Amino acid sequence: MSIYSGFATRQLEETYNNLISMLIQILSKRIIKFYINEPCHEPRFRHGLQQISLKLKSLEQQKYLDPKFSISLEPLFKHVQVLDSQEQFSFNEKLRNRQSSFFFAQPKQLSPKRKKSLCLTRKSCYMN
Fold first, then answer.
1. What is the Cα–Cα distance from 13 to 16, expressed in whole angstroms?
2. Can you give the chain as a three-state secondary structure string?
3. pLDDT at position 79, please?
4. CB 60 within 8 A of CB 70
5. Structural contact between residues 46 and 84, judged by C-beta atoms closer than 8 angstroms
6. CA distance 22 to 24
7. How do the pLDDT tens digits run along the chain, 128 residues long?
8. pLDDT of residue 36
9. Pairwise CA distance, residues 100 & 21, whole Å
10. Separation between Cα atoms, residue 61 and residue 68, nearest integer Å
11. Which pLDDT score, from 0 to 100, does residue 77 have?
């Protein structure tokens, strides 16, 4: 049995290496944008990091040799999750405020209930 960096198959090793390469690309782009003062789409950046993090951790469950890169990147991944959850909380608060002002500004008008028809099938309606 061959050992592919701790993975059982070459395909798993290749997938893992591709994820590491994608991670380096994402981080490089973000750092370059930071240094040239170019705006970055933060939610997209965070989402990309989170997706890579989940996939790395999943693959590392099948890996039995070091290095396991998700361990080294854990502080970064946790920080991104904290920021993401704070943003989600803020967004939900804004949404709740909008919904409550909408409901208080326009009272709900109740429509009268319709009586249910006594006809259960078409035949019974035509027989009467």
1. 5
2. CCCECCECCHHHHHHHHHHHHHHHHHHHHHHHHHHCCCCCCHHHHHHHHHHHHHHHHHHHCCCCCCCCHHHHCHHHHHHHHHHHHHHHHHHHHHHHHHHHHHHHHCCCCCCCCCCCCCCCCHHHHHHC
3. 84
4. yes
5. yes
6. 5
7. 457 788 889 999 999 999 999 999 999 999 999 999 999 898 899 999 989 999 999 999 999 888 889 899 899 888 887 766 766 666 666 666 665 555 555 555 545 555 554 445 444 444 44
8. 95
9. 46
10. 10
11. 86
Instruction: Give the CA radius of gyration of the chain.
Output: 28
| Angstrom distance (rounded) from CA 21 to CA 24 | 5
The amino acid occupying position 21 is: S
* Cα–Cα distance list, 34 to 21, 40, 41, 90 (Å): 20, 8, 12, 24
Q: Which two tokens stand for residue 88?
A: 């989600």
pTM (two decimals): 0.63
Residue 76: both structure tokens together: 């970064």
